[in-house]
Each structure stands twice: as structure tokens, then as C-alpha cells.
Amino acid sequence: MEQRISLITLGVDDFERSRRFYEQGLGWVAKDAPDGVVFYQLPGIALALFGRDDLAQDAHHPIDGRFSGITIAINERTEADVDMVLTQAAAAGATILKPAEKVFWGGYSGYFADLDGHVWEVAMNPFWTINDDGTLTL
């Protein structure tokens, strides 16, 4: 099997509210939106929003209300870009969990929770390259 992730699906409590957060709040553009799901094309990967209960049923995994231990990261080229994304997310209703700050590994990072509690890190890592097409090279 090849080492890759093709799609990340977030289970959301209120589909239309979450879609507004990503599209109007963060400025993302939907690539496809069949009934009850929306897909966003990202560099080299896609993100989907799907009703949380529907996703739990589809995966045969009950919702238990605990933090999953999974975060999703948006890597930016500069500290100013990190600050801009966190500001944009907060203005759209996200909860800032950790304001951006210089971190022990030499970068700059902060966290927000989207409207459904999914945890996103926004970071600038001086040791990684964000390519012109937006993909990440370690």
C-alpha cells in the first residue's frame, strides 16, 4: 500500500452551519456537493463535511463525546499568515484554543476548534517547505 491520505471527512453537527463556516468564514470553495456532503479540493488531498450522526452510522462507530486525539494542520509560510488564519477563523465563530506563539520545535503555532469542535493547528515550520502549489515537503 502506498503511504498517503486522500480524504479527511469531518463529522459535523449542523451541516449548513459548518459549510458556511468553511466557505464564508474561511473563504474555501466547494468542489462538489452531493446531497448531505460537501468536498473541498486542497493541494494533494480533499476535505469533506458530512453529518456527524450519518458518519457515525456509516463507520459503525458510536459518538462518545471525547476528544479523538486527532488534529488537522494548516501549514503557512509566515508567522503573519498563521495569525491571519487564526483571526479569520475566530471571526467566523471558531474558538481559539491556543493563540499563536513561538514553540519549542522552532516554529510558530496556534490552535482553534471549528464550530463542531474539530481541532485545527495553524503553524509555520521553518524546516518544511510549502511548495508553489500549496503542497508540503518535509
UniProtKB/TrEMBL annotation:
InterPro entries (alphabetical): Glyas_Bleomycin-R_OHBP_Dase (IPR029068), Glyas_Fos-R_dOase_dom (IPR004360), VOC_core (IPR037523)
A Pfam family of this chain: Glyoxalase
Entry superkingdom: Bacteria
SUPFAM superfamilies: Glyoxalase/Bleomycin resistance protein/Dihydroxybiphenyl dioxygenase
Coiled coil: none
CDD domains to which the protein is assigned, alphabetical: VOC_like
Domain annotation VOC: ranges: 4-125
Record-given protein name: Glyoxalase
Originating organism: Mycolicibacterium poriferae
Source taxonomy: Bacteria, Bacillati, Actinomycetota, Actinomycetes, Mycobacteriales
